[in-house]
Design a protein that fits this description.
The chain has 292 residues and is an alpha/beta fold. The protein has 14 helices and 5 strands. It has helices at residues 2-11, 18-34, 39-46, 50-59, 65-76, 82-92, 98-116, 119-131, 144-157, 169-176, 195-206, 221-225, 244-260, 262-278, and strands spanning 135-138, 161-164, 184-187, 210-215, 228-231. It has a 5-stranded parallel beta sheet, sandwiched between helices. Strand 4, helix 12 (221-225) and strand 5 (228-231) form a beta-alpha-beta unit. The relative contact order is 0.11.
Amino acid sequence: MYTDFLNQIEARLPEFSKAQKVIAHYILEHYEKAAFMTASRLGATVGVSESTVVRFASEVGCDGYPQLQKGLQEIIRNRLTSVQRMEITSDQIGRNNVVSKVLSMDMERIKHTMDELDTQKFDEAVQKIIRSRRIYIIGVRSAASLAGFLQFYFNHIFDNVHLINTTSTSEMFEQLFRITEEDVLIPISFPRYSQRTLKAAQYARNKGADVIAVTDCAASPLASVANISLHARSDMSSFVDSLVAPLSLINALIVAVGLEKQEEISQTYAQLEHIWDEYNVYEKAEDESFHG
C-alpha cells in the first residue's frame, strides 16, 4: 500500500510544479530521512516554504502533512539498517540537549500509545491470560528485556509461566511443542521484526492457542497472526529501539492482571516477604543510620 504511494509520486512527477518536483525528488531519493522531518525542516532542506510542503501533501492525496509523514514511516518501518538509523539519530537529535530531546520523544510515544490503545482488546487480553492453562512468552534481541520483565512479574502471579529463551529456532519449537488451545502465547516484537518471534506466533496459532501480540501497529507481521494485538509506539528516529511505551503497556498489563487476582497475589507476596527476610534478599536500612 505505502510502496504504491511512492510509485504514485513518481508517476505524477510530470504534473507537479517546479517546487513540487523538488520535494518529490527528495522524498523519492531520501524517504528514510524525510519520514522524520517536520514540514518546515523538509522545506528548508529542499529550498521551498513550509506551506508548499503542506500543499504537496494534499496534492498527493494526504489529509495534511502528518499523514504523508506516517506513510513514509510505514514504508521504512522494517527496512532501515542500523547504519541508516545512526544517520537519522545524528540528523534529528544532534549532540546538544540529547537527554531533553530523547525524554521528550519518549513522552510523546507514551501519549500516542495511550490515545491509540484499544482498551476493549486490552481487557480481552487480560481475561484470556487469566483463563489460560499455561502462559508462554517470547521476545528476542532488544525485546528480550521486555519478555523478561513480563515473565518476572507473571511468575509472582501464576505458576504456569514459560519464557521461551533460546537463540536456536529448533530449540524454540521444542519449548513450544506442548502448547495447546488451552494456552496463550505472548510474542513481543518491534521493528526490525524478529523472524523467530513471528514463527513462534504462527506455530502457536496453528496449534489453536490464543496469541496476544505486543507490537507497534496493525501493519506489523505479528498483528496479522495474533488473536489480539496490543500496540505501543516504538518509532525509529534513533539507532536505539525506544522501548519506553512498550514497557509501559506491559506494565499496565501486569497491573490489570494482578488486580483481577488480587487476593491470591496478596497471599503470595506475604509468603515471599518472609522468604526475602529470612534469606536477606534485600538490603535493609539500619535504624542507626538515621541517628547521629
